[in-house]
Design goal:
Layout lengths: L9 E2 L2 E9 L3 E8 L4 E8 L6 H16 L11 E5 L2 E7 L6 H8 L4 H19 L13 E3 L5 E3 L4 H6 L26 H4 L5 H17 L9 H10 L5 H4 L5 H10 L11 H9 L76 H6 L24 H4 L10 H21 L3 H6 L59 E10 L5 E10 L5 E8 L1 E8 L5 E8 L2 E8 L6 E5 L4 E8 L5 E8 L5 E6 L5 E5 L7 E7 L4 E7 L8 E7 L12 E4 L9 E6 L5 E8 L6 E8 L6 E6 L4 E6 L7 E6 L15 E6 L7 E2 L8 E3 L7 H4 L6 E8 L4 E8 L6 E7 L2 E9 L1
Antiparallel strand pairs: 1-2, 2-3, 3-4, 4-6, 5-6, 7-8, 9-10, 9-36, 10-11, 12-13, 13-14, 14-15, 16-17, 17-18, 18-19, 20-21, 21-22, 22-23, 24-25, 25-26, 26-27, 28-29, 29-30, 30-31, 32-33, 33-34, 34-35
Helix pairs in contact: 3-6, 3-10, 6-9
Length: 850
């Protein structure tokens, strides 16, 4: 029987919906519990020919043991059963992903975050060891993220069920009858390789995982399976601090103790390893990740030539991913249903953004203009002398240099903690800003994927004002830091109106995808919120609201405090197209009169300085901001004022050229008139600010077509990266800072002259340009409805959660005037609707964490 033959069948009271992964003796399916009406993961096993009775006997005994495990960091077993020659195990279905997938994206964790996560698993391991259970297959693929960001240990004890060739359940057989090694060689302890696994073997595997988390590399890899196993048995690992100087000496000592060849020299118990990590000193630099300069020429995790994990059991999509979606659109959150969380996702290989910098190996060279997302570039640290040369007998002669290097790293961490954290404001005031200069570039790497906030970081908000400043002026923003949590959270707009369409309440709200909790940040009567966006640091929402007929630019903090009005437009003028710069120093926006051309303004939010950046044109196209390319340049599009004509062309405005610029100061980088007639187009920028991704579509009957090209910002020929003869992609967004080939795209085919196209292929797609022939369809197009991505901002956190695992989407049904907001996993799966109201406008503003 093939795994696909089970789709549509029922085992026990579980209806199998689709396969999510399989291996030699097992397959994992998404299934529905018919009795409880919830989605579960169903892992189905089938024995080798002639082993059915012995297999089922051992399976039943092992399943009973697993079902009795009750620990928050161990994957729970809901049920198990047998049907014919098949056996199955039922667990929660979890779409959060695995640590393996996150490591493919991030390559390394800050040591403090890695410590927190590993300690959770060590607690689970101690619980199991106390019950005489040894895992024997600990690896990132068996560590799954729950919706709240915690790790759970999966596949507990099943290795001996699947791989035991005899009736002795206490013995691990690493050699199958065919002579092939089973298990995962990159994580095996030396004694486990010899078929003598013991409790200390799990501690060794945990040491390998932690080493990989903080350095971005496994301690031992080889060109062949045998070479890898020999290194585990004979070689000493490279000290982690040589690969990441932010690893503290105590953490390095703990990791190397866990990796001792002799099991009696390792930690005696998982709790001993856990306590050693919890006592690790935590300098400011411990929350950061080095660029792994010393490892720039070594293969990364996904680049390792070693064969992938070799095992008889099915890994699922690296194993069963579990997190069940919330039942209903607005119902209470069920404790049984973990929402998708911080974990990584889908792509089998991720490309670091600063690959060129890694290949160069030295400090990153200075460029005239900062990149679009400077924090996603590798932070390069000049390695100490002992890191620049191979280890040798004269190591003690270099000790003073090593001491100086450690002190230098600590000093850098201290300076960073003073300048790059909320303590900066306390010591130096609010107007201190770290900006790149012609001599050097300070690259700040803020927490991604929900790093644990430092206690005490939240600062009290000083008094603020929602009164309008004097005409033609603006007030500086009043800012105070807010400590954020882990949970992926959506910021959205709710606009209520009466029967005649007059605004009644305009509200900024947040929705926590883990807890299901909703909170109002700002709600004002007689108000319509016309646009909103989330700041780079995730702490603030910038929005435009028409309050009693006056268009105002406002700010509110993510805890609902600090509501303030920065400026008000004159009577009869509307603020539109506001874009907050990546460094959060400037806001560029248009003021639109009822009739005529808009004026482009630039506001410095720290000083309150307001200036005309682009004067209205005497004729031709007017300019409106679309997104910041970097901290100095803004991508603009041309519009025909007082018309419904689509946007035309793409331009670059450089604010370094000063105020009162005009068409002669901007640079055209794309001319839309070169496209075929009746075509649609959209664009986004790459994270290194070097390229534009431009989607060009031609609606058709019954289907349209499109292509996506990559075009250098500085000029040059375009490269076609995707072509489709059936999908009319009219929206494209670059969404993953760690994989520039990951895009979100909306396909909609209204036909050449109205709603005559075929909607069968319409919807939201995930595109990996490394595999352009297989776009992943995330949503269908609802009947008589259409979907849109964020209409106000194009930063990746506008449409995708900060951990790059989930998207947010708005769906509108014009006939019933109904709006719905939903989110879903980027690697595929059913979306969750969290807000749906008729005759009330709902719009996505972006993602943060709470």
């Amino acid at each position: 029987m093939q795994p696909g033959d089970l789709v549509g069948q029922t085992l026990g009271h579980y209806r199998i919906k689709r396969e999510v992964g399989h291996g030699g003796m097992a397959a994992v399916f998404l299934a529905e519990d018919i009795h409880l009406g919830r989605e579960v993961a169903l892992k189905v096993f089938w024995p080798r020919p002639g082993e059915t009775q012995d297999f089922l006997r051992r399976f039943a005994r092992e399943a009973r043991v697993l079902a009795q495990l009750d620990h928050p960091n161990i994957l729970p077993v809901y049920d198990y059963g047998e049907q014919g020659e098949l056996a199955y195990l039922v667990t929660p279905y979890m779409s959060g992903g695995t640590l393996k997938e996150v490591l493919r994206k991030r390559r390394a964790f800050p040591p403090s975050e890695a410590t927190e996560l590993i300690c959770q698993v060590l607690s689970a391991l101690q619980y199991a060891h106390d019950r005489n259970l040894i895992h024997r297959d600990i690896k990132p693929g068996n560590l799954l993220f729950k919706g709240n960001g915690n790790l759970v240990l999966a596949d507990f004890g099943l290795v001996k069920v699947l791989q035991g060739e005899q009736g002795d359940d206490t013995q691990l057989h690493t050699l199958s009858q065919s002579g092939q090694i089973t298990g995962t060689p990159e994580y095996m302890a030396p004694e486990q390789i010899n078929g003598k696994a013991e409790a200390a073997s799990d501690i060794y595997s945990m040491g390998v995982v932690l080493y990989e988390m903080v350095t971005g590399m496994r301690p031992f890899t080889g060109d062949t399976l045998l070479a890898t196993l020999m290194k585990h048995a004979q070689e000493q690992p490279r000290p982690p601090r040589e690969l990441n100087p932010y690893v503290s000496p105590r953490m390095e000592t703990a990791i190397l103790k866990a990796l001792e060849k002799d099991p009696y020299r390792r930690f005696a118990r998982p709790i001993d390893f856990q306590q050693a990590l919890q006592q690790v000193d935590s300098p400011a630099s411990n929350t950061r990740v080095a660029s792994l300069t010393a490892a720039s020429n070594a293969p990364g995790i996904e680049d390792s030539p070693t064969a992938p994990d070799i095992q008889a059991q099915a890994p699922g999509p690296d194993h069963v991913a579990l997190a069940e979606r919330e039942a209903g659109s607005n119902g209470p959150h069920s404790p049984l249903h973990d929402q998708p969380g911080r974990s990584g996702l889908r792509s089998p290989a991720q490309t670091p953004v600063s690959l060129q910098a890694r290949q160069r190996g030295g400090a990153e060279s200075v460029t005239p203009l900062p990149p679009a997302y400077p924090w996603v570039q590798s932070q390069t640290i000049a390695p100490p002398p002992e890191m620049q040369q191979p280890q040798g007998p004269s190591r003690h002669s270099r000790t003073p240099a090593a001491v100086l290097a450690v002190l230098l790293v600590l000093l850098v961490g201290l300076v960073a903690s003073l300048l790059l954290t909320p303590l900066r404001t306390t010591l130096f005031g609010q107007h201190l800003a770290t900006t790149p200069t012609s001599a050097s570039r300070t690259v700040t790497v803020p927490a991604r994927l929900g790093t644990t906030p430092t206690p005490g970081n939240t600062q009290a908000m000083p008094p603020t004002s929602t009164a309008c400043p004097a005409d033609g002026t603006a007030r500086p923003a009043t800012l105070a830091a807010l400590s954020l949590g882990h949970d992926p959270t959506i910021v959205y707009i709710v606009n209520e109106s009466d029967a005649r369409g007059n605004p009644t309440f305009g509200t900024i709200k947040i929705y926590n995808t883990v807890t299901g909790a909703k909170k109002e940040l700002a709600k004002t009567s007689s108000t319509e919120v016309t646009e909103a966006q989330v700041s780079n640091d995730g702490q603030w929402v910038l929005f435009v609201a028409t309050v009693a007929g006056v268009s105002e630019l406002r700010l509110v903090r993510l805890d609902g405090q600090g509501l303030q009005t920065l400026l008000c437009a004159p009577s009869g003028v509307t603020i539109r197209d506001s874009q907050w710069s990546i460094d959060q120093l400037h806001i560029i926006f248009d003021e639109f009169p009822r009739i005529g051309e808009p004026t482009v303004y630039l506001l410095n939010i720290l000083t309150g300085k307001l200036q005309v950046e682009v004067v209205p044109p005497a004729s031709g196209l007017a300019l409106v901001p679309r997104t910041w390319l970097d901290n100095a340049r803004v991508l603009m599009v041309g519009i025909v004022p007082d018309s419904d004509a689509p946007a035309q062309n793409i331009y670059i405005l450089n604010i370094a050229n000063g105020s009162n610029q005009n068409a002669s100061n901007v640079t055209e980088v794309f001319n839309s008139s070169l496209l075929p007639k009746s075509s649609c187009w959209d664009f986004d920028t790459s994270f290194d600010a070097q390229s534009l991704f431009i989607a060009q579509c031609v609606p058709g009957f019954p289907t349209g077509s499109s292509q996506i090209v990559q075009r250098p910002v500085a000029g040059g020929s375009s490269t076609t990266v995707l072509t489709s003869s059936t999908l009319a992609f009219n929206t494209v967004r670059v969404i993953d800072p760690h994989n520039p080939s990951s895009l979100l795209a909306l396909a909609a085919d209204p036909g050449p002259s109205g709603p005559n196209g075929d909607p069968a292929h319409d919807g939201l797609y995930f595109l990996n340009l490394n595999t352009p022939l297989s776009p992943t369809r995330l949503t269908d197009a609802p009947a008589d409805s259409y979907s849109i991505l964020n209409a106000f901002s194009q930063y990746f956190w506008s449409n995708v959660s900060r951990d790059d695992t989930m998207y947010a989407l708005e769906t509108i049904t014009p006939g019933t005037n109904a709006y719905a907001l939903s989110y879903g996993p980027l690697y595929g799966g059913e979306p969750t609707t969290f807000a749906s109201i008729a005759d009330t406008v709902l719009e996505i503003a972006g993602w943060t964490t709470t």
